[in-house]
Design brief:
The protein has 215 residues and is an alpha/beta fold. The protein contains eleven helices and eight strands. Strands 1-2-3-4-5-6-7-8 form an eight-stranded parallel beta barrel, surrounded by seven helices. Helix 5 links the parallel strand 4 and strand 5. Helix 6 runs parallel beside helix 8. The radius of gyration is 19 Å and the shape is globular. The termini are far apart. It binds SN-glycerol-3-phosphate.
Amino acid sequence: MQLYLDSASLNEVKQAADLGVLDGVTTNPSLIAKEGVPYSKRLEEICKVCSGPVSAEVIATDFAGMMREGKEHVKIAPQIVVKLPSTLDGLKACKAFSDDGIKTNLTLCFQPLQAMMVAKAGAFLVSPFIGRLDDIGQDGMQLIRDIRAIYDTYGMKTKLLAASIRHTNHLLHCALAGADVATCPLKVITDCMKHPLTDKGIEIFVNDYKKAFGG
Ligand code: G3P
């Protein structure tokens, strides 16, 4: 499974890249709003650190506006993927960009038929949101399993990018369910390497060695 960082923080992108596990980056309007820098400048900076796909979301909600913003985003760097909402206008824009060879990420996907539709329109990525479904008492992971089943049944090529991941249990179950990609906050990525018995084991090894050989 590929791992993307879900962040607009350059510092976090650098930290994830240094770990050697960064396959791409996803950003959104809320994430860039926290940064206090122009979106295009930050995307350019991120693309210098990460050579994998970098999703740049449109703010427009109408087809013409999405096309206009998306065309500006793709001028920034070759790895930019235009992130569009999973709406009817987003679907039309997805088809238009795909026909022009421009990669898209259809975001805010909350039910499997949205994922089926955007795959038919040529989306490169679809972003089903797990955490936000859990937040309203639904089963976010079931959405991942349902999309996987539909895509596998019909040989749909769109990559299933699990999003709105809040903790390592989400990430583990995405990997087991066959998500192609998961986009996570930095904390979820670093938490993957944590276990109390690992820390305890290191402590025991170091103490045993020091007792025997000093130092
Ligand atoms: O980038 C989209 C998605 O990952 C947002 O996650 O935690 O705001 O629901 P969250």
